[in-house]
Specification:
The chain has about 250 residues and is an alpha+beta fold. It is built from seven helices and eleven strands. The chain folds into two domains: about 180 residues, no CATH class; about 60 residues, Beta Barrel (OB fold (Dihydrolipoamide Acetyltransferase, E2P)), CATH 2.40.50.
């Protein structure tokens, strides 16, 4: 099974962000301060406002959230899912790939070696503490057999992760997949090579996300199944205290 099969999957989840945000009504919410009684000062679409949430939120964290508001009431945050720190860390960084860059990497002769070389070059040229830290995190992820790719698409940052493994029970090679997309929410999945077909099982957190991806699959050549899931987690999140242990 070739890692280049992920190129087609990357295209599938790279739906039009503006269209997706309109249909899903999904926003990125930064929690600035807890005001008590379920009220929070939040940053949404570069606007600071006070909103209500039945779910307890952490100050300084960022969440996927759907926002509704009735007349004369505070905006209500619902369907909240905490974003991974990775997505927040790489915002406004110059380490992100374009979709074209990603396709070039995945179709290279040795994607892991190509990514490692690029990251070491970026590490040696790092100009800020954050750039050094983030590049080190990507190297630590690769050291743990997980590709972590920051992706910049239509003015939005995303995180893609994938990891190749052998399923002893099925006796097949598989690729675990994870994506954190501001406009679709978290996505996870498993790609399996089955004789002459590629089977892709994807899980998403929002029903509207599932509907959008189902619409995008009409011309997709592989067999894809979609389901809803809770607690979709990254394949790997680097320990910030391990930055001195980069030994790829």
């Amino acid at each position: 099974m070739n890692i280049s099969h992920l190129s087609a999957l990357a295209k599938l989840i790279s739906t039009n962000p503006n269209e997706a945000k309109t249909l899903i009504k999904l926003g990125s919410v930064d929690v600035l301060k807890s005001l008590g009684d379920g009220k929070y000062t939040v940053l949404l679409e570069n606007k600071t406002l006070t909103a209500q949430s039945q779910m307890r939120l952490n100050e300084g964290a960022r969440y996927w959230a759907q926002l509704t508001q009735d007349k004369n009431t505070l905006p209500q945050l619902s369907n909240l899912i905490k974003m991974p720190q990775l997505l927040k860390s790489f915002a406004n960084e110059n380490l992100a790939y374009t979709l074209k860059d990603l396709q070039t990497l995945l179709h290279s002769k040795n994607p892991a070696a190509s990514l490692k070389q690029t990251l070491f070059e970026q590490l040696s040229n790092a100009m800020t503490k954050d750039e050094f830290s983030n590049t080190s995190n990507l190297l630590l992820s690769l050291q743990n057999q997980t590709f972590t790719i920051p992706l910049y698409y239509h003015n939005y940052f995303s995180i893609l992760q994938f990891k190749k493994r052998y399923n002893k029970k099925l006796k097949k090679t598989q690729i675990d997949f994870y994506a954190a997309l501001e406009f679709l929410g978290p996505v996870s999945g498993v790609i399996t090579f089955e004789e002459n077909d590629i089977l892709i099982d994807l899980s998403v957190a929002y029903e509207k996300t599932k509907q959008i991806l189902e619409d995008d699959m009409k011309n997709f050549s592989y067999t894809v199944t979609l389901s809803l899931a809770q607690n979709i987690e990254p394949l790997y999140e680097a320990n910030l205290n391990s930055l001195l242990d980069v030994s790829i």
